[in-house]
Design goal:
By secondary structure, the chain is an alpha/beta fold. The chain has 3 domains: 162 residues, Formyl transferase, N-terminal domain (Rossmann fold, 3-Layer(aba) Sandwich), CATH 3.40.50.170; 91 residues, Methionyl-tRNA Fmet Formyltransferase, Chain A, domain 2 (Roll), CATH 3.10.25.10; 229 residues, 2-enoyl-CoA Hydratase, Chain A, domain 1, CATH 3.90.226.10. Helix content is 35%, strand content 20%. The strands form 4 sheets. It has a 6-stranded mixed β-sheet, sandwiched between helices. Strand 1, helix 1 and strand 2 form a beta-alpha-beta unit. The relative contact order is 0.09.
Length: 584
């Protein structure tokens, strides 16, 4: 079937749907909703049999939905309507929620029903971004696949909205949630403030004031301190600030200036306003004092296995994040374990260097250079580790240098349903030692194709081409159990010894030193960062300010050149590790 994804942005859910539909044998293209005329022209030019809208903030022009089957994937259960569905669900503490596939009509979210799914919500307030990328995305994909199957049946007719039963209490039409609906006072209970901020994460944030500065707040975690004056900044740690509340405290990791600024680590944005506020570092290797305490990197060990978990907001890694992870890596490597599991966050494994911090710097080029050097240090530590078997566990999606970050591990273990974008945009050649690691995993030709095509890859397809070694269950708890079993298998003394020795032999036998690969990459990056030869400045600024795209990239369009099908049962190609020339 010829399917067009009509979307506001080619985001994680849209990419996941694109991958799944292509792998099911459909011809799939993308049309960005840059304007009504662009949407109409894009549909007319591609002549799709079905239009799906997994992420669309704009109204579908009548000229489209009146002539072609157009199905909206709405992040709410049957009966729910409005643009702030998840915000209201989190803010009001809904116990269950859902996703509905409904046909586009004149009135938004009021069309006949094609498919629906419901799921439980946790008692603790989830981040909106985590909810969207987790249960909502899973339910949405099921609705997408069911809709496509029904679209192939000429006899199928969707259920009129007024005839569809409302499955969840409280599902109803609701307006856009405004800042007046999100307002809180720092003297409120911690739980209330936490729920308000998380219902607005990662957009639009909640307007408040900290250290005398009006800001939008994001990335909140309950703190352990008590007795501080509400609204007072009590401490800082790893980019976050600890703020007193009515009954305790709250860590706030990211802030945005209300005067059109960009989202930044809280300490970066507040800067000199934090003079005199104590820093409370966490010693490397200490056990967490509480599972809710604020720390971005944690290390623990169970028997012969070391577990190094890191979770950076939106997967962005500034130099400080890289240094903390590097220090933790070196601590972990110094332990007498057989296996080291490097696990990223469930929302994102990594998305590479921190473009927001770079763009906000007084010296963006120098900041970008420091950032790439810092993340390369982490990559080098992983590649050259021969004391333990390193397992890179991609529990969340990854992009650009964040994909390349873990490819030097002995085993790459991805969670089902994540999406990898193993290429560089933003006018950057890219580093993270990818010219060394990527060809050794997928072969030189496939490596070049991934970098050139600039297309997302599902975890399952990544396993077929050798980009990852293993794919575990989708549910986070099931993935943890599966990953534990994998680590225990790899920690068997004979197995671990063979892997370590094989890696040491490969590294010793390299014709070209690792440092040469890095030097070549950095030479290219210096031209991009300091010379701006490929438009890094403009692309970066457009990204961090969320500027609307100029149009749909040609590589995503529904054209004959872009619809090559992927056989769903294609056998995985074995990983290859050739000696790759520097020109590869």
């Amino acid at each position: 079937m010829r399917i067009l994804l009509l979307v506001t942005a080619f985001n994680g859910l849209s990419q996941r749907a694109w991958c799944a539909l292509r792998e099911a044998g459909h011809d799939v293209g993308v049309q960005l909703a840059t304007s009504a005329s662009d949407m109409i022209d894009g549909v007319r030019a591609t002549d799709p049999e079905l239009i799906l809208c997994p992420f669309l903030k704009d109204r579908v022009p009548a000229e489209i939905w009146k002539k072609r089957r157009t199905v909206i994937i709405h992040p709410g259960p049957v009966g729910d309507r409005g643009p702030s569905s998840l915000d209201w669900a989190i803010a009001e503490g809904a116990r269950s929620w859902g996703v509905t596939a409904l046909q586009a009509v004149e009135e938004m979210d009021a069309g006949p029903i094609w498919a629906t799914r419901t799921f439980p919500l946790p008692a603790a307030a989830p981040r909106k971004s985590s909810l969207y990328n987790g249960p909502v995305a899973d339910a949405a994909l099921e609705c997408v696949l069911e809709t496509v199957a029904k679209a192939a049946d000429p006899a199928f007719k969707p259920v009129p909205a007024d005839a569809a039963p409302t499955e969840l209490p409280g599902a109803r039409p609701r307006p856009l949630m405004k800042q007046d609906d999100r307002v809180f006072d720092w003297s409120d209970a911690t739980e209330r403030i936490l729920r308000k901020i998380r219902a607005a994460d990662g957009a639009p944030g909640v307007r408040t004031e900290l250290a005398g500065q009006p800001v939008f707040a994001y990335d909140a975690t309950a703190g352990l301190a008590r007795g501080g004056r509400p609204g007072t900044v009590l401490g800082r740690r790893q980019g976050a600030v600890l703020v007193g509340t009515g009954d305790g405290s709250l860590w706030v990791g990211h802030l945005r200036d209300t005067e059109g600024g960009i989202k930044l680590p809280a300490t970066t944005l507040l800067g000199s306003r934090l003079r005199g506020v104590p820093n409370s570092p966490v010693p490397i290797g200490t056990e967490p004092e509480s599972p809710v305490s604020y720390r971005q990197v944690r290390y623990r060990r169970t028997g012969r296995i070391g577990w190094l978990a890191f979770d950076f907001y939106n997967g962005a890694m500034a130099p400080g994040h890289c240094r903390r992870l590097l220090a933790a890596l070196r601590h972990a490597v110094a332990q007498n374990t057989d296996v080291l599991v490097l696990r990223g966050g469930t929302d994102a494994f990594s998305n590479g260097i921190h473009l927001n911090v770079i763009d906000a710097s007084s010296d963006p080029a120098g900041s970008a250079w420091a950032n790439i050097r810092a993340i390369n240090d982490v990559c080098r530590e992983i590649i050259t580790c021969t004391k333990q078997v390193v397992v890179a566990a991609y529990a969340g999606s990854a992009g650009a240098g964040g994909v390349m970050l873990g490819l030097g591990a002995d085993v790459v273990a991805a969670r089902a349903g994540i999406v990898l974008n193993p290429y560089y945009e933003m006018g950057l050649f890219g580093s993270e030692l990818h010219t060394f690691t990527l060809p050794r995993r997928v072969g030189a030709d496939q490596a070049q194709q991934l970098v050139d095509d600039k297309l997302p890859v599902s975890a399952e397809q990544a396993a077929r081409i050798g980009l990852v070694d293993e794919v575990g269950p989708r549910h986070p708890d099931a993935y943890t159990e599966w990953l534990t079993a994998l680590a225990e298998r790899e920690s068997e003394p004979r197995t671990a010894r063979r892997r370590r020795q094989a890696k040491a032999r490969r590294l010793a036998g390299e014709r070209v030193p690792l440092e040469v690969y890095e030097a070549r990459e950095l030479a290219e990056m210096s031209r991009d960062m300091f010379g701006d030869r490929n438009g890094f400045i403009a692309a970066r600024h457009a990204f961090v300010t969320k500027a609307p795209p100029a149009g749909t990239p040609e590589r995503l369009r529904l054209t004959p050149a872009n619809v090559s099908r992927i056989a769903p049962k294609e056998k995985r190609k074995p990983a290859v590790r050739p000696a790759v020339p520097l020109s590869a």
